[in-house]
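[agent] plan:
  1. take the single chain provided in the ticket
  2. run structure prediction with default settings
  3. attach C-alpha coordinates to the ticket
  4. add a short note for the reviewer (M.T.)
[agent] executing step 1
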Amino acid sequence: MARHWAVLILLLAVACEVGAAQVALDPMPPSRAQVLQLMSAMGVQQNVDASLMATQAKVKVAARSSFQKKNPNADAATLKKLDTVFDATPLFNFEAISEPLVAVYQKNLSAADVQAGIDFYTSDAGKRLREKLPVIQRESNASGGKLVQQKLMEYSAELERKLEAFQAELDQQKPAADKTKAADDKSKTTDEKSK
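[agent] step 2 finished; step 3 output follows
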Protein backbone atom coordinates (compact mmCIF):
# COMPACT_ATOMS: atom_id res chain seq x y z
CA MET A 1 0.00 0.00 0.00
CA ALA A 2 2.83 2.37 0.82
CA ARG A 3 4.24 1.80 -2.67
CA HIS A 4 0.93 2.81 -4.26
CA TRP A 5 0.79 5.99 -2.20
CA ALA A 6 4.43 6.72 -3.05
CA VAL A 7 3.61 6.37 -6.77
CA LEU A 8 0.60 8.63 -6.32
CA ILE A 9 2.66 11.27 -4.52
CA LEU A 10 5.37 11.03 -7.18
CA LEU A 11 2.80 11.50 -9.92
CA LEU A 12 1.34 14.47 -8.08
CA ALA A 13 4.80 15.99 -7.68
CA VAL A 14 5.53 15.58 -11.39
CA ALA A 15 2.15 17.01 -12.20
CA CYS A 16 2.89 20.00 -9.96
CA GLU A 17 6.21 20.68 -11.67
CA VAL A 18 4.73 20.40 -15.15
CA GLY A 19 1.78 22.52 -14.09
CA ALA A 20 3.96 25.28 -12.69
CA ALA A 21 5.75 25.60 -16.01
CA GLN A 22 2.51 25.62 -18.01
CA VAL A 23 0.36 27.86 -15.80
CA ALA A 24 1.56 31.06 -17.46
CA LEU A 25 0.92 29.63 -20.93
CA ASP A 26 -2.51 28.08 -20.41
CA PRO A 27 -4.42 29.24 -17.33
CA MET A 28 -7.54 27.15 -18.13
CA PRO A 29 -7.86 24.53 -15.36
CA PRO A 30 -9.02 21.02 -16.23
CA SER A 31 -12.51 19.86 -15.39
CA ARG A 32 -13.15 17.29 -12.69
CA ALA A 33 -14.13 14.74 -15.34
CA GLN A 34 -10.93 15.42 -17.27
CA VAL A 35 -8.77 14.94 -14.16
CA LEU A 36 -10.59 11.70 -13.27
CA GLN A 37 -10.06 10.50 -16.84
CA LEU A 38 -6.32 11.19 -16.51
CA MET A 39 -6.16 9.44 -13.13
CA SER A 40 -7.92 6.44 -14.61
CA ALA A 41 -5.63 6.40 -17.66
CA MET A 42 -2.58 6.59 -15.37
CA GLY A 43 -3.92 3.76 -13.22
CA VAL A 44 -4.12 5.93 -10.11
CA GLN A 45 -7.75 5.10 -9.40
CA GLN A 46 -7.25 1.37 -9.99
CA ASN A 47 -4.10 1.25 -7.83
CA VAL A 48 -5.72 3.11 -4.95
CA ASP A 49 -8.82 0.89 -5.09
CA ALA A 50 -6.69 -2.29 -5.23
CA SER A 51 -4.60 -1.05 -2.32
CA LEU A 52 -7.69 -0.22 -0.29
CA MET A 53 -9.19 -3.66 -1.01
CA ALA A 54 -5.96 -5.33 0.15
CA THR A 55 -5.97 -3.19 3.28
CA GLN A 56 -9.59 -4.08 3.96
CA ALA A 57 -8.79 -7.78 3.61
CA LYS A 58 -5.93 -7.42 6.12
CA VAL A 59 -8.16 -5.56 8.55
CA LYS A 60 -10.80 -8.30 8.26
CA VAL A 61 -8.22 -11.03 8.91
CA ALA A 62 -6.93 -9.17 11.96
CA ALA A 63 -10.46 -8.55 13.27
CA ARG A 64 -11.42 -12.19 12.70
CA SER A 65 -8.28 -13.33 14.52
CA SER A 66 -9.03 -11.01 17.42
CA PHE A 67 -12.62 -12.30 17.58
CA GLN A 68 -11.41 -15.91 17.58
CA LYS A 69 -8.97 -15.19 20.42
CA LYS A 70 -11.82 -13.78 22.50
CA ASN A 71 -14.18 -16.56 21.39
CA PRO A 72 -12.02 -19.67 20.91
CA ASN A 73 -15.05 -21.98 20.85
CA ALA A 74 -16.87 -20.10 18.07
CA ASP A 75 -18.43 -22.54 15.63
CA ALA A 76 -18.49 -22.30 11.83
CA ALA A 77 -21.97 -20.72 11.80
CA THR A 78 -20.83 -17.95 14.16
CA LEU A 79 -17.74 -17.29 12.05
CA LYS A 80 -19.91 -17.16 8.92
CA LYS A 81 -22.13 -14.54 10.60
CA LEU A 82 -19.00 -12.63 11.57
CA ASP A 83 -17.88 -12.62 7.93
CA THR A 84 -21.32 -11.29 6.97
CA VAL A 85 -20.85 -8.43 9.44
CA PHE A 86 -17.47 -7.64 7.90
CA ASP A 87 -18.82 -7.79 4.35
CA ALA A 88 -21.67 -5.46 5.30
CA THR A 89 -19.11 -2.83 6.31
CA PRO A 90 -17.16 -2.00 3.16
CA LEU A 91 -14.11 0.20 3.26
CA PHE A 92 -14.21 3.49 1.39
CA ASN A 93 -12.95 3.56 -2.19
CA PHE A 94 -11.10 5.98 -4.45
CA GLU A 95 -14.22 8.03 -5.10
CA ALA A 96 -14.48 8.89 -1.39
CA ILE A 97 -11.01 10.46 -1.38
CA SER A 98 -10.86 11.78 -4.94
CA GLU A 99 -11.96 15.39 -4.36
CA PRO A 100 -8.78 16.66 -2.69
CA LEU A 101 -6.70 14.86 -5.33
CA VAL A 102 -8.74 16.35 -8.16
CA ALA A 103 -8.28 19.79 -6.64
CA VAL A 104 -4.49 19.34 -6.57
CA TYR A 105 -4.44 18.37 -10.24
CA GLN A 106 -6.73 21.30 -11.12
CA LYS A 107 -4.55 23.71 -9.20
CA ASN A 108 -1.30 22.60 -10.79
CA LEU A 109 -2.19 21.50 -14.32
CA SER A 110 -3.90 23.18 -17.21
CA ALA A 111 -6.63 21.54 -19.23
CA ALA A 112 -4.10 21.14 -22.08
CA ASP A 113 -1.60 19.40 -19.76
CA VAL A 114 -4.23 16.96 -18.53
CA GLN A 115 -5.40 16.25 -22.07
CA ALA A 116 -1.81 15.59 -23.15
CA GLY A 117 -1.46 13.15 -20.24
CA ILE A 118 -4.70 11.42 -21.21
CA ASP A 119 -3.52 11.18 -24.82
CA PHE A 120 -0.22 9.66 -23.76
CA TYR A 121 -1.51 7.20 -21.16
CA THR A 122 -4.25 5.95 -23.49
CA SER A 123 -1.73 5.47 -26.32
CA ASP A 124 0.01 2.13 -26.88
CA ALA A 125 3.28 3.54 -25.50
CA GLY A 126 1.55 4.91 -22.40
CA LYS A 127 -0.25 1.62 -21.78
CA ARG A 128 3.04 -0.29 -22.13
CA LEU A 129 4.75 2.10 -19.72
CA ARG A 130 1.97 1.70 -17.19
CA GLU A 131 2.08 -2.07 -17.56
CA LYS A 132 5.86 -2.31 -17.25
CA LEU A 133 6.37 0.36 -14.57
CA PRO A 134 5.74 -1.97 -11.59
CA VAL A 135 8.29 -4.47 -12.97
CA ILE A 136 10.78 -1.68 -13.63
CA GLN A 137 10.29 -0.29 -10.12
CA ARG A 138 10.62 -3.71 -8.48
CA GLU A 139 13.78 -4.60 -10.42
CA SER A 140 15.24 -1.12 -9.91
CA ASN A 141 14.61 -1.32 -6.18
CA ALA A 142 16.23 -4.76 -5.99
CA SER A 143 19.36 -3.91 -7.96
CA GLY A 144 19.49 -0.33 -6.72
CA GLY A 145 19.12 -1.48 -3.12
CA LYS A 146 22.09 -3.83 -3.43
CA LEU A 147 24.17 -1.09 -5.02
CA VAL A 148 23.19 1.40 -2.32
CA GLN A 149 24.21 -1.08 0.39
CA GLN A 150 27.56 -1.69 -1.32
CA LYS A 151 28.18 2.04 -1.74
CA LEU A 152 27.24 2.71 1.90
CA MET A 153 29.70 0.07 3.09
CA GLU A 154 32.43 1.60 0.92
CA TYR A 155 31.51 5.06 2.18
CA SER A 156 31.61 3.91 5.81
CA ALA A 157 35.00 2.27 5.32
CA GLU A 158 36.41 5.38 3.64
CA LEU A 159 34.96 7.61 6.35
CA GLU A 160 36.49 5.38 9.04
CA ARG A 161 39.92 5.58 7.35
CA LYS A 162 39.68 9.36 7.15
CA LEU A 163 38.55 9.60 10.76
CA GLU A 164 41.53 7.51 11.88
CA ALA A 165 43.91 9.70 9.84
CA PHE A 166 42.33 12.83 11.30
CA GLN A 167 42.65 11.44 14.83
CA ALA A 168 46.33 10.58 14.20
CA GLU A 169 46.89 14.13 12.97
CA LEU A 170 45.27 15.55 16.10
CA ASP A 171 47.34 13.24 18.30
CA GLN A 172 50.55 14.53 16.66
CA GLN A 173 49.54 18.12 17.37
CA LYS A 174 49.01 17.54 21.11
CA PRO A 175 51.79 18.80 23.40
CA ALA A 176 54.18 16.19 24.80
CA ALA A 177 52.63 16.50 28.30
CA ASP A 178 49.21 15.51 26.93
CA LYS A 179 50.76 12.48 25.25
CA THR A 180 52.46 11.44 28.49
CA LYS A 181 49.21 11.90 30.44
CA ALA A 182 47.31 9.84 27.85
CA ALA A 183 49.94 7.08 28.11
CA ASP A 184 49.71 7.17 31.92
CA ASP A 185 45.92 6.97 31.77
CA LYS A 186 46.18 4.01 29.45
CA SER A 187 48.62 2.17 31.73
CA LYS A 188 46.41 2.87 34.80
CA THR A 189 43.47 1.29 33.01
CA THR A 190 45.60 -1.72 32.14
CA ASP A 191 46.86 -1.97 35.75
CA GLU A 192 43.31 -1.75 37.11
CA LYS A 193 42.15 -4.51 34.82
CA SER A 194 44.96 -6.81 35.93
CA LYS A 195 44.06 -6.42 39.66
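[agent] step 4 note for reviewer: The chain has a mean pLDDT of 82.
[agent] ticket updated
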